[in-house]
Amino acid sequence: MNDSSRSSSTTRRRMRSGSVALGGMGLLAAALVACGSSSEPDKRCVDRATLEKLNTKECKSGGSGRGAYYYGGSVSKNRVGGGSFDKSAVTRGGIGGHSSSSGG
Fold first, then answer.
1. Which three-class secondary structure string do you get for 53-82?
2. What is the edge-to-edge ordering of all strands in the sheet holding 79-84?
3. Which of 6, 34, 69, 99 lies at a 20 to 30 A Cα distance from 75?
4. d(Cα 56, Cα 97) in Å, to the nearest integer?
5. What is the distance between the alpha carbons of residues 86 and 101, in angstroms, rounded to a whole number?
6. What distance in Å separates the CA atoms of residue 104 and residue 84, rounded to the nearest whole number?
7. Counting Cβ atoms within 10 Å, is residue 91 exposed (0-12), middle (13-18) or buried (19+)?
8. pLDDT at residue 15, as a whole number
9. Interval 10-39: pLDDT, tens
């Protein structure tokens, strides 16, 4: 293989890997936008009395029935706060958006 064909081969390889990296970044950006644009607030299965986060099956019919869905807010030390059991009381922003709520 002479120098010119080696150089051409190296250039093609570099361009191909650059295209793959740019394509991957595009896919990542699209995935982030899709995840952040949902109008549905986050929901978690929670014990109504203790506000302890539970396994999702505790909120499904046929489970023990002790859980209810809690919308928005956050989890700290396996307890929820800053959200509501009333889905309509919670709004969700897009990327970087903040949840807001009332009562609970």
1. ECCHHHCCCCCCCCEEEEEEEEEECCEEEE
2. 43-47, 67-76, 79-84
3. 34
4. 25
5. 9
6. 5
7. middle
8. 57
9. 555 555 655 555 666 666 666 655 555 567
Q: Judge if pTM exceeds 0.70.
A: no
Q: Is the dihedral of CA 75, 79, 80, 86 positive or negative?
A: positive
Output the six-digit token pair for 28: 């990542």
Amino acid, single-letter form, for residue 19: S
- At residue 93, does pLDDT exceed 90? no
3-state SS, residue 44: strand
Q: How far apart are CA 89 and CA 104, in angstroms?
A: 9
Question: Considering Cα of 19, then 24, then 27, then 33, what sign does the dihedral take?
Answer: negative
Q: What is the pLDDT of residues 54-85, one digit of tens each?
A: 998 888 876 567 899 999 999 999 999 999 99
Q: What are the structure tokens assigned to 64, written together? A: 């023990």
